Amino acid sequence: MINQIKSTLLILFVFMTLSSFNSKDVIIDSNLSFDEAIKTSPAPADIINELTLVNVEYYSTDSKLHRGQLVVNKSVASDVKEIFELIKSIKFPVNKCIPMVKYKWSDSASMQDNNSSSFCYRTIAGTNRISKHAMGKAVDINPFFNPVIYEDGKISPKGANYNPKKPGTFSSDNPIVKKFIELGWRWGGNFQSFKDYHHFDKE
To answer: Most exposed residue of 48, 92, 117, 141, measured as fewest CB within 10 angstroms of its CB?
Structure first.
């Protein structure tokens, strides 16, 4: 009887141990409240009121399932959810998704860390024009894998290299690029004067 109890306990222990390593377990990259995600943003109240916090899941570069967050405009939230469902289903690697507050609203710091993001109240780099990121109507995905390449050959972020054969990189035949375009978004890889491979935006 004692041996039977020991065997039962051993089986239960093994089952619980294996369950703790279940492939469905999710690694949390970001778990902020909306107020935490927009804290210290210089954006005016009328823009803040148009934003929402979206939880997204994706397989990261470690091939494990992660959960992150994007602050986006309410008008594009359903698009973003649909696109990230596709990203998850085809296991397109996304390094991380953490709201820009964690980078003190520095686009450069976020890009250098290969962080995917949306809302950031700022101007377009090198101009005085307000970016679509300032309204949460733009999404950047894997910026270090999908850098900006200017006409003079300069690449941003520093040290990045565009290799369309590398996992997590976009090209015109990528199903995620096609899905964004199908939903009415622009892809920066189609820009004429320079290429912004990580960038997608919508009117």
So the answer is: 48
